[in-house]
Amino acid sequence: MEQYLAGRTLILVSNREPYEHTAPDAVRRPPGGLVSALDPTMRRTHGTWVAWGSGAADRETADADGRVQVPPEQPEYTLRRVWLDDADVDGYYLGFANSGLWPICHMLLQHYEMRSEHWERYVDVNARFAAAAADEVRRAPSDAVVWLQDYHLAVAPAQLREALDAEGRSAFLHQFWHIPFPPPDILRLLPTAAHEGVLRGMLGNDLLEFHTDRYASNFLDCVAEFVPEAHVRREDRSIHYAGRDVHVGAFPISIDTELYESLARAPEGARRAAELRQQYACGDRVLGVSVDRIDYTKGIPERLRALDQLWTDAPDLRGRLTFLLVATPSRSELSSYQALEHDVIAGVETINAKFARDDWTPIVLLRESIDAADLAGIYRAGDLCLVSSLQDGMNLVAKEFIACNVDEQGVLVLSRLTGAADEIEDAILINPFNVDGVVDGLRRAIAMPRPERRARMQRMRAQLARATIFDWLEAILARVADLADASAGRGAPRDRSTLGDVAPRPSRPDIGAA
Ligand code: ADQ
User: Fold this and answer.
1) CA of 124 to the centre of ligand 1 (A)
2) Which residue in 3, 99, 314, 451 is deepest, having the highest Cβ count within 10 Å?
3) Which distant-in-sequence residues (6+ apart) come within 8 Å of 143 by Cβ?
4) Residue 209 pairs with which residues in a beta bridge?
């Protein structure tokens, strides 16, 4: 991975930090694939990670500039913390990012709430991230590559660019957008200052990375419509803006496939899978699973409606199909998320009251956070996994299920409104808004003969093994190297076929065509 940086200093900027001090001598590592994939790269390249210092003991463990060396037990890179107070968290994080941009980008307008003061706070907090990143660029021992993450930081790239330009400094700026990007008619529902501000902010980057071609095209369409002075070139997916070229590409994110597979095969995962199968899937009984944060984008009430309909239409599945629903509370500070959690619990209770028998409960609800080994066992045990997102940038659960399905008997029933559906070819695709279609998809999954299950799962596993999170990272860093070399006059861009060799991909998504 390091070869792509060619001696440049990597500065990562994200909302969440990779190490949170809960006490002076206690560190929490947030779960999640992104931190696990990027932390080793940071350790090897000794760069800097700029993020919100959210831990109770973060201030006392950092210096006056908010800097602390991590990992604490063996320091290898710098974590630069940005401090937010409660009003910042309310306005920037819970407000504009999660009540404004999140529902707009997922096109779920009934959840959209806009307050001018949230937008103002968002711009202000982004400026603080940008100032911290600019300071790290100044301190960097070599040319800097700044990699921003996600929708929390849409405005920061332009703010950072402006700060660097004012000092005559340059750095390569790029951003990965983890959620969908909406078409112009949806983005325009943000007030003019906000939708133009988001676009102009993102145009501060040299390269913008989305999961799919669709999101990349939506972004180009929005720029063409709302930023009149930008010149959009769809043929090579670039934008000429403010005297620079901004490149746009599709880079579908993935998971550490080998890690999930080894967890599913390890004694703990295998034991958990065997227990679940013994309890719920003996003989002709069937176990369905799902795993999500409780978020309205994930389509959990829609999933419950489909299950209700399935057990209503197919009495033979009562007592036969058990559904293990793992649904962990998230963003509980927001009342809409609390209400959703309440609805999910009530929905499960209603279905269970309607169909349960003395020896059978239709839906088993697990609301806690599950550790990785346990999760791998749950995925391994599932005869089917139902992903019913109403919109989802990628959806890593679909990929985790495939990686853990080492017995090759599981069927993936996948919403066609996820980024994953553009990539995974052997899932049963459903539209979560269409209850009958979901019921039909579930019935097909349950009835699918074993040889077909195996053949589909084998193809999905082979495809996933060629497109892991490390391939994703490598594809992005290779593209960054090409563009940064070209703009520094270090020669022609790398041969695209080389990039293909480094990071082979399934055929449909484009890994950032030039
Ligand atoms: P999320 O919306 O969080 O991510 P997703 O991609 O499904 O959605 O990732 C969720 C992660 O949380 C998975 O790794 C899953 O295993 C884990 N998880 C969920 N419930 C859990 C539980 N109870 N216990 C333990 N782990 C649990 C955003 C976008 C996605 C995009 C990712 C990555 O919304 O579309 O795929 O970022 O870019």
Assistant:
1) 28
2) 99
3) 7, 8, 9, 170, 171, 172, 484, 488
4) 176, 249
Residues 6+ apart with CB under 8 A from 191: 114, 116, 119
The 48-52 sheet, strands edge to edge = 67-70, 77-82, 48-52, 9-14, 144-149, 172-176, 207-210, 244-250, 238-241, 231-233
CB 398 within 8 A of CB 426: no
User: Is the minimum distance from the CB of 375 to ligand 1 under 6 angstroms?
Assistant: yes
What spacing in Å lies between the alpha carbon of 292 and ligand 1's midpoint?
7
How far, in Å, CA of 192 to CA of 183, rounded? 15
Q: Which residue has the tokens 């999640």?
A: 32
Q: How far apart are CA 223 and CA 168, in angstroms?
A: 27
Is the dihedral angle over the CA atoms 406, 408, 410, 411 positive or is it negative? positive
* DSSP letter (8 states) at residue 360: B
- For ligand 1, what atom is nearest to the CA of residue 396? 6
Give the span between the Cα atoms of 394 and 419, in whole angstroms: 4
% of the chain beyond a pLDDT of 70:
95
* CA 410 – ligand 1 centroid, Å: 20
- Under 8 Å between Cβ of 254 and 399: yes
Q: What is d(CA 299, CA 387) in angstroms, rounded to the nearest whole number?
A: 8
Scan for tokens 């010149």, then name that residue. Answer: 231
Among 120-124, 198-202, 369-373, the range scoring the smallest mean pLDDT is: 369-373
Over residues 401-415, the pLDDT tens digits come to: 999 999 999 999 999
Question: Cα–Cα distance between 135 and 414 in angstroms, integer?
Answer: 44
CA–CA gap between residue 156 and residue 150 (Å, rounded): 11
Summarised one tens digit per residue, pLDDT across range 144-203 is 999 999 999 999 999 999 999 999 999 999 999 999 999 999 999 999 999 999 999 999
Ligand 1 pocket, 328 CB below 6 A?
Answer: yes
Nearest alpha carbon to residue 145 among 136, 156, 154, 158: 136
Is the backbone peptide bond immediately before 267 cis, with ω within 30 degrees of 0? no
Burial of residue 253 (CB within 10 Å: 0-12, 13-18, 19+) is: buried
With b for 16 or more beta-carbon neighbours within 10 A and e for fewer, the 51-79 pattern comes to bbbbbebbeebbeeebbbebbeeeeebbb
Mean pLDDT of 292-319: 97
Task: Spell 334-369 as b/e; 16+ CB within 10 A means b.
Answer: bebbeebbeebeebbeebeeebeeeeebbbbbeeee
Q: Measure the CA–CA gap between 64 and 41, rounded to whole angstroms.
A: 26
Strands 144-149 and 67-70: unpaired
The DSSP call for residue 317 is: G
Distance (Å) from CA 83 to ligand 1 centroid: 26
